[in-house]
Amino acid sequence: MIDDGTRDVTDLQQMEFPVWSHAISSKGTVKNTPGAVNVPIICAGQIIFLGDVIIADDDGICVFARKDAPAARQAADERIAN
Hints:
This protein is α+β, with helices and mostly antiparallel strands. The protein has one domain (2-29, 40-81). The protein is built from two helices and six strands. The strands form three sheets. The protein has a two-stranded parallel ribbon. It has a two-stranded antiparallel ribbon with strand order 3-4. Helix 1 links the parallel strand 1 (2-6) and strand 2. The radius of gyration is 16 Å and the shape is globular. The two termini are 30 Å apart.
């Protein structure tokens, strides 16, 4: 999930690389500051921690703490079975 716009949509689709973003933008990126890894981020108002489980499809995205993932899977399986 990108809490901004994404570009090169045609290329991403041809690569079958899924990207979720708020918009499509032709504006390029600025790389004046170094990035960070293994740190929490906030995306669409949701804090994401290292190890969180992210499940996404064309209808949306869900984020679960790793410890809650088995229960989320069980609940999803029960809903599908119902």
